[in-house]
């Protein structure tokens, strides 16, 4: 299937997700499971949708930074998703020449948007193309930051589990010491205590699970 058709199908999916306020990959999963058209999504359309979803933060920031008119949240839904597709191709897909990505975006805009959109889209994508190396650097830094945050979260979570485990273990040891009184021979106790102990029920063993402390929360 021609890539022009794949771009249009990708645009359909991105537009729908944007209009519904639905996560892009969530809608894509639905479309792959239950295609809304007679033919399944082409492979390249899937690549486009996944690529935009993966780099959405970087793409939107780049479009905002290079737009001299409307910010992306104020653009028409169809326009911003045409821009997202083309920006992904320009910055993240070296197999597609920048000129082709821009021309394909203009073709979609001429068909689906108003008469002012093509000129605006052309200027914005040209600026993205000129600055794509810096956009890639920004994306790399963002990915590294997210990785660091994820590792810190995992570390905090592991420390919380270990702390909870150690707390429970300490409680268990305390319980063993407290319940040892049941096994003491009566001669080691005072006569009145021995007499009471002989006629009373054994002390209940403290549960290792009981505690007034809050369970540490995972980060």
Automatic annotation (TrEMBL):
Q: Which UniProt keywords apply?
A: RNA-binding, Transcription, Transcription antitermination, Transcription regulation
Do you know which InterPro entries this protein is assigned to? NusB-like_sf (IPR035926), NusB_fam (IPR011605), NusB_RsmB_TIM44 (IPR006027)
State what protein this is by name. Transcription antitermination protein NusB
Enumerate the residue ranges of region (Disordered): 139-219
Record gene name: nusB
**Residue ranges annotated for the NusB/RsmB/TIM44 domain, each copy included:** 5-128
A single MF term (Gene Ontology): RNA binding
This chain's function reads: Involved in transcription antitermination. Required for transcription of ribosomal RNA (rRNA) genes. Binds specifically to the boxA antiterminator sequence of the ribosomal RNA (rrn) operons.
Biological process per Gene Ontology, one example term: DNA-templated transcription termination
* The species this protein was found in: Bifidobacterium aquikefiricola
């Amino acid at each position: 299937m021609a890539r022009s058709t794949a771009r249009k199908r990708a645009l359909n999916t991105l537009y729908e997700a944007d209009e519904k306020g639905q996560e892009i990959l969530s809608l894509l999963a639905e479309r792959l499971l239950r295609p809304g058209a007679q033919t399944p999504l082409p492979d390249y359309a899937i690549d486009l949708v996944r690529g935009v979803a993966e780099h959405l933060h970087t793409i939107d920031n780049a479009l905002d930074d290079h737009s001299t008119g409307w910010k992306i949240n104020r653009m028409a839904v169809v326009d911003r998703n045409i821009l997202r597709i083309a920006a992904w191709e320009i910055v993240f897909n070296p197999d597609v020449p920048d000129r082709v990505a821009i021309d394909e975006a203009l073709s979609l805009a001429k068909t689906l948007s108003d008469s002012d959109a093509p000129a605006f889209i052309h200027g914005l994508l040209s600026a993205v193309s000129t600055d794509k190396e810096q956009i890639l650097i920004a994306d790399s830094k963002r990915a590294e930051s997210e990785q660091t945050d994820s590792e810190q979260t995992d570390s905090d979570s592991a420390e919380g589990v270990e702390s909870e485990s150690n707390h429970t273990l300490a409680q268990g040891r305390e319980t063993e010491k407290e319940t040892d009184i049941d096994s003491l021979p009566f001669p080691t106790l005072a006569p009145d205590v021995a007499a009471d102990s002989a006629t009373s029920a054994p002390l209940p063993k403290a549960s290792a699970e009981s505690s007034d402390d809050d369970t540490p929360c995972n980060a």
